[in-house]
């Protein structure tokens, strides 16, 4: 039963950070502001998003990568600069920031960033008409319309995944498709189109993102694609100018996110968050205000570089066309970017301020709606009276045509409003953090009580009944009534209520068992354990540290190992080699085919060295699949098309492995284990790009030798008496090896970002979800093998499985508590992104360990007529 509690509790904890730190910013049912009452400087706007183009590639060597655009900039001026995105640096959030002016909350990840969790307003919905071309995945985000006339106002043309990119050097074919469709469209309607105003043309160019992923941004192949795309953009610009001769077209060229050198994005590195922008045409100031940054176009032509937030693009584009910003927008209009009359700018800024105020007023009303709100603190800078005062002040200034004052008040109001919105959105963050901490502490106490119970059961063979005293019962009931009463009266959302109430059932659980000693270990042991946990936490920040931890652990194990034979020497060499891996650069994004093929050789030769028995079907299936993998990689190197049969063979082997490990063809547990290792590492080898396989094979072999020496020391020490400190030691080893397998070949960032090259044998089209699945599979295989080895070969761990398991949860949860307090929603996006991934990875690892331990027991240990507790002697006989 307690395993189920553990799984449910950890899934709930996983959700907690999103409720505590990241609430959805979208408010529904808001009224849009009216259009600006003056004539807009532009009648249409062309928004070009070059997906995945980073600022570095664009500005490289004074724009020498974009020669056509460079000429255009010299002629047309306009504004040039860097637009700063937020994490996660993925396509969906980037486009939403640009087109809706809002930063979607990271909890959208739970919906896979595919479906819109909540509907939101966009610049397209405010416009008279929108024409868009690009990839289906992006266009569909903006294709949800509530209005009846949607079909007339929106023309979307998307290609699906039928444009294959695998092995295709020319990813700009994707962009060519867009350009040709736009050209066709403009030529089809040269008479009607110029008559329309307040129109958006949206061109989504996926070619560069795909090129970046496959070729990596610093290669010649990527440059070739960039040249083609930028030339295409220039041609499209010329075409627009030909069709629309009224000089009333504004252009925005930017990108949704950047890309790292290794061809990935998602995290918060400057290469990922810094994207270029170039805005020119009608309504755009050719030179804004003074800035410290410049870029030299020619010997004597310098262009200033500006910085904006990605979400500022939405109110800017709206203002250029005389439209109000989308109702959910959080961006502030950069007024100096506009080339318009003082009155026009004042009106646009005021409209922006009212739009933001509408969101604040909604949150304020909602807070005031709660019956107990008169007792609670409020945002003092912008109370009801202040809001009304500011509004009338604005009206007066507008009436007196004092546009400077209107602009200034509007900006002050916007600043306060944004702070106020944040204040009310995070209103319950502190109580939630407190409640979650109490839940986690109660959970730790529950685990300790379980351990205590197990220990006494073990020593005295007495069943203890659960005890929940009446007094404690009453106290919990009062708490439950009090908190739920508050939630109902204050009309809190169900998520907030759930996490505020969570401590009560966990506390009830923790109090069920009486505890004799709060510290199950001696003071010294506890201190050492806490130090080890701290060490693991630190290794999340610098992966080199895990090398030190690994060597120290190896030394400790060897102290108890008295044998000094050839195995001893081999192990020493292995430990030293393994300790070097975390010092190497991460393997993600690094492809080395020689190392890759060498890994194949190791996979095949390992069974011969360790005398591993295999069934005929294992040998046959693996031989075919490895040959097939080699063929796939060979094709990939030569950028040739992959036949469908190859993919089919890879997926068949994948299914074969998972079916085959469910059977145990041999009677020796060790033989079965070796077979599972062989099958799993063969599957793993198909997902590698360079030296990962060497590391995992070494780690597994070293672990088997370590377990052998641990086995001899543990059986002599604890044959008869139960030792809790040994349980902690074994569980700490499991966690250490797990994290070592993560960080040995990659760092924290590479766990969350991925390299599409790992799917060379499995996929030919770019499908993020299948790739994500393969990344998770690649990370999990070593963990599964580690758990299998420890729970199969170490008889101590089979006997005290439950104890070890509880210790495992204790250690993981103490680490998770640590990371809960390190989650940040302020500061640089690199810090925020990493802090979220630490907590999430910790929770997921705990869950995975729970599942794998049970799986390994079922697959390898559990005999057919299973008796609940095997004696040590029996196990030794079996193995
Ligand atoms: Zn993208
Ligand atoms: Zn991408």
Automatic annotation (TrEMBL):
<keyword id="KW-0808">Transferase</keyword>
<comment type="pathway">
    <text>Glycolipid biosynthesis; glycosylphosphatidylinositol-anchor biosynthesis.</text>
</comment>
<feature type="transmembrane region" description="Helical">
    <location>
        <begin position="728"/>
        <end position="749"/>
    </location>
</feature>
<keyword id="KW-0472">Membrane</keyword>
<feature type="transmembrane region" description="Helical">
    <location>
        <begin position="835"/>
        <end position="860"/>
    </location>
</feature>
<protein>
    <recommendedName>
        <fullName>GPI ethanolamine phosphate transferase 1</fullName>
        <ecNumber>2.-.-.-</ecNumber>
    </recommendedName>
</protein>
<keyword id="KW-0812">Transmembrane</keyword>
<dbReference type="Pfam" id="PF04987">
    <property type="entry name" value="PigN"/>
</dbReference>
<dbReference type="InterPro" id="IPR017850">
    <property type="entry name" value="Alkaline_phosphatase_core_sf"/>
</dbReference>
<keyword id="KW-0256">Endoplasmic reticulum</keyword>
<dbReference type="InterPro" id="IPR037671">
    <property type="entry name" value="PIGN_N"/>
</dbReference>
<feature type="transmembrane region" description="Helical">
    <location>
        <begin position="803"/>
        <end position="823"/>
    </location>
</feature>
<feature type="transmembrane region" description="Helical">
    <location>
        <begin position="648"/>
        <end position="666"/>
    </location>
</feature>
<dbReference type="GO" id="GO:0006506">
    <property type="term" value="P:GPI anchor biosynthetic process"/>
</dbReference>
<feature type="transmembrane region" description="Helical">
    <location>
        <begin position="568"/>
        <end position="588"/>
    </location>
</feature>
<dbReference type="InterPro" id="IPR017852">
    <property type="entry name" value="GPI_EtnP_transferase_1_C"/>
</dbReference>
<feature type="transmembrane region" description="Helical">
    <location>
        <begin position="473"/>
        <end position="489"/>
    </location>
</feature>
<dbReference type="InterPro" id="IPR007070">
    <property type="entry name" value="GPI_EtnP_transferase_1"/>
</dbReference>
<comment type="similarity">
    <text>Belongs to the PIGG/PIGN/PIGO family. PIGN subfamily.</text>
</comment>
<keyword id="KW-1133">Transmembrane helix</keyword>
<feature type="transmembrane region" description="Helical">
    <location>
        <begin position="769"/>
        <end position="796"/>
    </location>
</feature>
<feature type="domain" description="GPI ethanolamine phosphate transferase 1 C-terminal">
    <location>
        <begin position="419"/>
        <end position="828"/>
    </location>
</feature>
<keyword id="KW-0337">GPI-anchor biosynthesis</keyword>
<keyword id="KW-0325">Glycoprotein</keyword>
<dbReference type="GO" id="GO:0005789">
    <property type="term" value="C:endoplasmic reticulum membrane"/>
</dbReference>
<comment type="function">
    <text>Ethanolamine phosphate transferase involved in glycosylphosphatidylinositol-anchor biosynthesis. Transfers ethanolamine phosphate to the first alpha-1,4-linked mannose of the glycosylphosphatidylinositol precursor of GPI-anchor.</text>
</comment>
<feature type="transmembrane region" description="Helical">
    <location>
        <begin position="427"/>
        <end position="446"/>
    </location>
</feature>
<feature type="transmembrane region" description="Helical">
    <location>
        <begin position="6"/>
        <end position="22"/>
    </location>
</feature>
<dbReference type="GO" id="GO:0051377">
    <property type="term" value="F:mannose-ethanolamine phosphotransferase activity"/>
</dbReference>
<feature type="transmembrane region" description="Helical">
    <location>
        <begin position="527"/>
        <end position="556"/>
    </location>
</feature>
């Amino acid at each position: 039963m307690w395993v189920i509690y553990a799984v449910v509790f950890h899934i709930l904890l996983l959700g907690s950070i999103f409720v505590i730190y990241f609430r959805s910013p979208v408010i529904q049912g808001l009224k849009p502001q009216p259009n600006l009452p003056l004539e807009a400087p532009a009648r249409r706007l062309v928004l070009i998003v070059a997906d995945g183009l980073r600022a570095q590639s664009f500005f490289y060597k004074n724009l020498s990568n974009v020669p056509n655009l460079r000429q255009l900039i010299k002629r047309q001026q306009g504004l040039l600069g860097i637009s700063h995105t937020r994490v996660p640096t993925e396509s969906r959030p980037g486009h939403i920031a640009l087109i809706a002016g809002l930063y979607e909350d990271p909890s959208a990840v739970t919906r896979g960033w595919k479906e819109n969790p909540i509907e939101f307003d966009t610049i397209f919905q405010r416009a008279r008409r929108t024409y868009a071309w690009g990839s289906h995945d992006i266009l569909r985000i903006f294709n949800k319309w509530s209005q009846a006339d949607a079909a007339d106002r929106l023309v979307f043309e998307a290609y699906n995944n039928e444009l294959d990119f695998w092995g295709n050097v020319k990813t700009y074919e994707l962009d060519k498709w867009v350009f040709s469709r736009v050209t066709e469209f403009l030529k089809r309607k040269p008479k009607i189109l110029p008559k329309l105003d307040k129109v958006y043309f949206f061109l989504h160019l996926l070619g560069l993102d795909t090129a970046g992923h496959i070729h990596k941004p610093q290669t010649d192949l990527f440059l070739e694609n960039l040249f083609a795309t930028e030339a295409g953009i220039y041609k499209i610009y010329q075409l627009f100018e030909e069709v629309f001769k009224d000089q009333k077209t504004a252009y925005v060229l930017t990108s949704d996110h950047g890309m790292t050198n290794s061809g990935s994005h998602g995290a918060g590195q400057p290469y990922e968050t810094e994207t270029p922008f170039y805005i020119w045409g009608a309504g755009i100031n050719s030179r804004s205000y003074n800035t410290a940054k410049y870029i030299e176009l020619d010997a004597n032509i310098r262009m200033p570089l500006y910085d904006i937030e990605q979400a500022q693009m939405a109110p800017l584009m709206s203002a250029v066309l005389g439209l109000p910003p989308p109702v959910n927008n959080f961006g502030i209009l950069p007024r100096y970017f506009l080339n318009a009359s003082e009155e026009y700018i004042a009106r646009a800024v005021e409209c922006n301020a009212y739009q933001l105020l509408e969101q604040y007023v909604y949150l304020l009303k909602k807070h005031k709606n709660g019956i107990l709100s008169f007792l609670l603190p409020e945002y003092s800078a912008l109370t009801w009276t202040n809001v009304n005062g500011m509004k009338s002040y604005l009206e007066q200034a507008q009436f007196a045509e004092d546009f400077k004052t209107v602009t200034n008040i509007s900006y002050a109001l916007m600043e306060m409003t944004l702070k106020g919105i944040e204040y009310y959105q995070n209103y319950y963050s502190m109580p939630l953090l407190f409640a979650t901490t109490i839940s986690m502490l109660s959970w730790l106490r529950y685990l300790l009580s379980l351990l205590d119970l197990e220990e006494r059961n073990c020593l005295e063979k007495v069943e203890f009944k659960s005890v929940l005293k009446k007094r404690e019962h009453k106290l919990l009931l009062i708490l439950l009534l009090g908190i739920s009463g508050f939630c109902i009266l204050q009309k809190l959302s169900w998520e907030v209520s759930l996490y505020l109430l969570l401590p009560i059932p966990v506390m009830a659980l923790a109090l069920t068992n009486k505890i004799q000693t709060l510290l199950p270990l001696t003071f010294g042991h506890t201190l050492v354990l806490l130090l080890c946990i701290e060490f693991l936490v630190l290794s999340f920040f610098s992966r080199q540290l895990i090398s030190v931890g690994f060597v120290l652990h190896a030394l400790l194990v060897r102290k108890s190992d008295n044998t000094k034979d050839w195995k001893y020497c081999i192990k020493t060499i292995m430990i030293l080699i393994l300790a070097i891996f975390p010092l190497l650069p991460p393997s993600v994004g690094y492809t080395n085919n020689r190392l890759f093929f060498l890994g194949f050789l190791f996979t095949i030769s390992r069974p011969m060295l360790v005398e591993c028995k295999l069934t005929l079907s294992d040998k046959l299936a693996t031989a075919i699949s490895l040959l097939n993998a080699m063929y796939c990689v060979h094709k990939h190197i030569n950028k040739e098309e992959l036949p469908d049969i190859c993919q089919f063979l890879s997926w068949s082997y994948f299914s074969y492995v998972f079916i085959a490990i469910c059977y145990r063809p041999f009677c020796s547990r060790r033989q079965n284990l070796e077979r599972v290792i062989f099958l799993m590492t063969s599957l793993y080898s198909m997902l590698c790009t360079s030296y990962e396989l060497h590391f995992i094979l070494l780690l597994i072999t070293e672990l088997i030798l370590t377990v052998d020496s641990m086995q001899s020391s543990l059986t002599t020490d604890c044959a008869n008496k139960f030792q809790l400190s040994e349980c902690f030691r074994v569980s700490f080893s499991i966690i250490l090896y797990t994290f070592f397998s993560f960080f040995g070949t990659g760092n924290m960032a590479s766990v969350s970002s991925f390299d599409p090259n790992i799917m060379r044998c499995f996929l030919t089209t770019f499908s993020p979800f299948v790739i994500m699945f393969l990344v998770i599979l690649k990370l999990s295989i070593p963990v599964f093998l580690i758990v299998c080895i420890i729970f199969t070969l170490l008889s101590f761990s089979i006997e005290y499985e439950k104890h070890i398991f509880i210790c495992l949860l204790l250690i993981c949860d103490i680490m998770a508590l640590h990371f809960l307090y390190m989650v940040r929603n302020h500061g640089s996006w690199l810090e925020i992104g990493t802090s979220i991934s630490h907590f999430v990875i910790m929770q997921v690892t705990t869950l995975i360990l729970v599942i794998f331990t049970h799986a390994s027991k079922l697959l390898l240990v559990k005999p057919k007529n299973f008796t609940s507790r095997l004696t040590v002697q029996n196990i030794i006989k079996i193995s």
